[in-house]
Amino acid sequence: MTTTSGRKLLTSGWWGRSRHPNYLGDWIMGWAWCLPCGFSTPIPYFYVVYFAVLLWHRQLRDDDACRKKYGADWDVYCRRVPYRIIPYVY
């Protein structure tokens, strides 16, 4: 999608399904680091909880910055790509 200023916003591939699909990949990678520790203690899983909160907050800040940068074009983009991180969920 081309904005009124001539910049491009991706609306195809993974970025056509969610605005921050790379954050989902990062979070899944966090699980890959925790799961080998097993389930005898919850300590390794504090990381994925912390990371989920960090990524959630970051996408809010990113969306706010993009709304300021692209203006009304960002609203059009958000209608085309309604999901933020997890396609069809959030």
TrEMBL record:
<dbReference type="GO" id="GO:0005789">
    <property type="term" value="C:endoplasmic reticulum membrane"/>
</dbReference>
<keyword id="KW-1133">Transmembrane helix</keyword>
<dbReference type="Pfam" id="PF01222">
    <property type="entry name" value="ERG4_ERG24"/>
</dbReference>
<keyword id="KW-0812">Transmembrane</keyword>
<dbReference type="InterPro" id="IPR001171">
    <property type="entry name" value="ERG24_DHCR-like"/>
</dbReference>
<comment type="similarity">
    <text>Belongs to the ERG4/ERG24 family.</text>
</comment>
<keyword id="KW-0560">Oxidoreductase</keyword>
<dbReference type="GO" id="GO:0006696">
    <property type="term" value="P:ergosterol biosynthetic process"/>
</dbReference>
<dbReference type="GO" id="GO:0050613">
    <property type="term" value="F:Delta14-sterol reductase activity"/>
</dbReference>
<keyword id="KW-0472">Membrane</keyword>
<feature type="transmembrane region" description="Helical">
    <location>
        <begin position="28"/>
        <end position="53"/>
    </location>
</feature>
<protein>
    <submittedName>
        <fullName>Delta(14)-sterol reductase</fullName>
        <ecNumber>1.3.1.70</ecNumber>
    </submittedName>
</protein>
